[in-house]
Write a structure and sequence with these properties.
Layout: E1 13-22, H1 32-36, E2 40-47, E3 54-56, H2 62-65, H3 78-95, E4 103-106, H4 114-118, E5 124-128, H5 131-139, E6 144-146, H6 151-159, E7 164-170, H7 179-184, H8 186-189, E8 190-201, H9 203-208, E9 221-222, H10 225-234, E10 237-245, E11 251-258, H11 267-278, H12 285-288, H13 290-310
Parallel strand pairs: 4-5, 4-7, 5-6, 7-8
Antiparallel strand pairs: 1-2, 2-3, 3-9, 8-11, 10-11
Amino acid sequence: MIACRYCKAPLTVSFADLGATPLANSYLDPTDAAKATERSFPLHVMVCSACRLVQTTETVPADAIFDHDYAYLSSYSTSWVAHAKRYADAMTARFGLTPASLVAEIASNDGYLLQHFVAKEIPVLGVEPAGHAAQLAEERGVPTRVAFFNEATAREVTANGPQADLIAANNVLAHVPDIRDFAAGFPVFLAPEGVLTFEFPHLLNLIRDAQFDTIYHEHYSYLSLLFVERLLNDAGLRVFDVEELPTHGGSLRVFACHEGAAHAEGPGLAKVRAGEAAAALDTDAAYAAFGARVSDICAGFRAFLDQAEAEGKSVAAYGAAAKGN
């Protein structure tokens, strides 16, 4: 029996089974010998009926994915860099950040986001496991610690420096195999009245729009507000607002603080809670039918390819996203 990676309850409800596939972003030399060494891993996603974490059943070791030569750099996308600048401007204004503040980012990549706070003369610190990306961030003037973030890392960082007034964790929560230990680091690193923001693709959009091509091994988890609130509450943190974003097929930006902090609840929180409740994300039924939809879409696409071939037509395809490939 497979156990939930968060609450250890047995997993019994399948969400989507995409078979065995190679790792994205793990490129091969164009030789037969290199191709023969490529490894594939099961890509099966299930939902925990107890805590509602949607998760892969196969835990590919994180250091096999996010090594020193990890290929993805956030600054490749000019639109994502612009998104980061808008975030920096909005958070500075909303929370009154100054040169006396400290802004941190977890999984800070090549400094794409923190560079905008540096430009405002606000002190920053990145935590990034990929050494190549961290080196590029340092060259941008973004101090970066090369490490996977967890409670132990947070204690090491705060032993030698201040707590952070703002912590960003964009599109990283899904990438963490031990999500409980990861979350436990934030109350250690966050200042008493500090703000923590997470961005992640919203599970509700994945289900509604059949975005199964966003499932890949780097995403150990597929996240709802329902689960993220539980995760943060268990860590002693409180969600106080949510923004809905168009990025990555529809994402959430969740704002959290210490349980006893003074931040007032914003209207976005009730809106997203209501949307998830209307979709019955607290029931097995909301997830159990998704696999059949995926199978139907794949069968329809194969039928299209067969028909095109029978008619002597050519089909051209171009995949840019790591997940879609």
